[in-house]
Amino acid sequence: MNDGISKLLLTPEEMTAVDARAADSGIDSYALMERAGEAVAATLLRHFPAVLRAAVLCGPGNNGGDGYVAARHLNESGVVVDVFQMGEPTRLKGDAARARDNFPAAPQSLESYQPRNGDVIIDAIFGAGLARNVPAGVRDVIERVNGTNVPVIAVDLPSGVDGRTGSVRGAAFVADRTVTFMTRKPGHLLMPGRELCGELEVFDIGIPSRIIHAEKKQQIAENGPELWRRALPSNRLGTHKYKRGHLVVFSGEASKTGAARMSAMAGLKAGAGLVTIAAPKDAVGENAAHLTAIMLHAIEDEAALSDWLHDERLQTFVLGPGFGVGEKARRFVALLSERQLVLDADGLSSFKDAPDELFSRFSGIPRLVITPHEGEFSRVFPDIAADTAIGKIEKAQAAAARANAAIVYKGADTVIASPDGRAYINTNAPVWLATAGSGDVLAGIIGALMAQGVPAFEAAAAGVYMHGEAGLLGGKGLTAEELATQVRPL
């Protein structure tokens, strides 16, 4: 398998276009179905050698055809096979009908399937292109199966999972393994689809890479170093601390200083040459008691910040962690509108009633990174968040275009989006990153990369990845304080 292809993400619409172009080029479409079905059968035999019966659940399209091919190969290998068809088998068309005719036994109705001990289910009802809720009869079968311990192998995607968004269309199988072909779809990586897929295998069934590249239109990818490594700063001998950038993190009041310190420490560990915490006077002492390599500067109000900004070396800032929600945050952001800014937490929530005030200040080359979790996204982009017709990728892309900013739409399936339409799905973050203060650490990492000259979107994508790697290094049970110490430059 060409890893350059298997690591791609194609939307269901793009994959449909690939299939059509392959057929138009003279490739035998039934031969492709044969290889797909063979791959599914091989997966069952490899991982479930003790199977007593293969229960193959077939849908009304080509996904069902893949199921019939798998059923035939399993039958020929000596496995007991029963096929259960959704709808009338005579309504199958084209390659799917040919696959049905080549299977030696008549199918039973899908609704009649009852799981039993020793079964392994092949879910070939719907593929990645499902764009509606599953019918009631299919939902009943899914719920019946999910209530047992019978293993499920999904063909392309677990039936009920939307291949574009990863969302569940009414109900979906919980698969032990998922077998897909040529490339993955966004629904394989987005939640809850990623969790419902179980172990994912990508099989090459013989479609030329030129066809796949020709039909890939969306700038969607899995986040990884190959996408942004060239944008990272080089480690040349002639560098010094100012060339590595000066990052400023704003602190909150005396009782809310910890978040800024975690962000600042993460920035230092991520490679910034200097890191300063800018704190109100009542928080200077509290911060000073905990700082060593991180510097401290008293900033009480707008006048003090305006005066300090005469130093042109101050170009990159993090505002939000523990800062407090309100007018002060908005006034500080106005002063920073010509600089590079990571706006997180309280800083972002300060604009919930006036998001356009924020967006209007950051025109031109993107220099703003916004890092909302689900609730913050809904407050700042309420209409986008409420649009049920689009998924997380499209929401992040729309928000990035509106704000002219890199958006880090956080969650178990964090999506990083650029105003130019690029969108990366992050997958390396362990579940234990869901801990208080984790987002503060992320903001510091992104700010440090921007301070070192990495463009906003690449800094956001690389920062999210580095954050995940730090979580993996820290292991289960880590706190945000420990997470900050695990940050390593890439």
> How does the helix and strand content classify structurally?
alpha/beta
How helix-rich are the residues, as a percent range? 40-55%
Number of domains: 2
Shape: elongated
Order of strands across the main sheet = 8-17-16-15-14-13-12-9-10-11
How much of the polypeptide forms β-strand, as a percent range?
Answer: 5-15%
- Mean pLDDT, to the nearest integer, reads 96
Number of helical segments with 4 or more residues? 22
The assigned CATH architecture of the largest domain is 3-Layer(aba) Sandwich
Radius of gyration: 26 Å
Largest sheet: 10 strands, mixed
N- to C-terminal distance: 28 Å
Number of strands: 17
Low-confidence sequence ranges = none
CATH topology (fold) name of the largest domain: UDP-N-acetylmuramoyl-L-alanine:D-glutamate ligase
User: CATH superfamily assignment of the largest domain?
Assistant: Ribokinase
Classified by CATH, the class of the largest domain is: Alpha Beta
EC number: 4.2.1.136, 5.1.99.6
Binding site for K(+): 63, 123, 159
Protein name: Bifunctional NAD(P)H-hydrate repair enzyme
Keywords: ATP-binding, Isomerase, Kinase, Lyase, Metal-binding, Multifunctional enzyme, NAD, NADP, Nucleotide-binding, Potassium, Transferase
